[in-house]
Amino acid sequence: MKNQTSTRLFGYWNDLRGPRMAPNRFEVEPSRITDILSQTFILERTAADQFLFRLAGTQVCENFGCEFRGREILEMFEQGDRPNFERILRGTFFEGSVGVVSIEAQTPDGRAWTFEMLLLPLIHSGNAVTRVLGALSPDEPGPEWLGSIPLVSQSIRRISMIWPDGHPHAIIERNEHQLPFSQIPGPKRVVSIDRRNFRVFDGGRIDTTSTDN
Fold it and tell me: Cα–Cα distances in Å, from 166 out to 97, 163, 192?
């Protein structure tokens, strides 16, 4: 994790969950993260196995020049990147991983800026993760044109799956599309954040070399 927004949201989520795999959706208090609320979002996994934006902060929508609510998140990305991003989503929804995705977004005239997306699992009912708390923020302060020109093309530069407890969780709810833990490709390593160790699985279509998370 590089962005201050991602680090701030992860710290709040991590404190909220305590020794559990993830906090409950209803434990999240927007008033506790008002400083970054405009750059956050909530995803829902539907009964039709879609991953939809339930809510998206004003800054997220302004940066990309579109309304995200009700939109399928996979539609953000180019076709070639969707399988990698879906793997990250399924790790978060089905095994309780934290997803970190570096995204390059482009305007119609080819101008580009990079963003960091953070995906944090939330328990909504029973033992199932059916919600994700996320952040989508630009790397460093954006250029002057950001927010005035729509971002129409997004590609993945780097992806990481972080296991806050050092291992995937056996969430009760499964389905036939889930990738088993043993099939998650890429090198794995252990990193430390705030004196806690995290096992990280890196991958990505363009750049699979990890930076400090």
Answer: 10, 5, 11
CA-closest candidate to residue 14, choices 194, 174, 181: 194
Q: What is the DSSP letter of 57?
A: -
Phi/psi of residue 90, each to 5°?
-70, -30
Please tell me whether residue 9 adopts helix, strand or coil conformation: helix
Residue 58: DSSP 8-state: H
Higher pLDDT, 32 or 130: 32
* CA distances from residue 15 to 44, 132, 157 in whole angstroms, order as listed: 22, 16, 29
DSSP-assigned letters across all residues of 64-132: HTS--TT-BGGGGB-GGGHHHHHHHHHHHHHH-PEEEEEEEEE-TTS-EEEEEEEEEEEEEETTEEEEE
Per the CB < 8 A criterion, the answer to whether 197 and 166 are in contact is yes
100 touches 117 (CB < 8 A)? yes
- The amino acid present at 10, given as its one-letter code, is F
Kindly state the tokens that stand for 21: 């795999």
Instruction: Report which of residues 28 and 205 the model is more confident about.
Output: 28
Q: How far apart (Å, rounded) are the C-alpha atoms in residues 120 and 106?
A: 25
Q: What is the pLDDT of residue 45?
A: 92
The tens digit of pLDDT for each residue in 14-32 reads: 999 999 999 999 999 999 9
Residues 109 and 53: their CA atoms lie apart, in Å, by 27
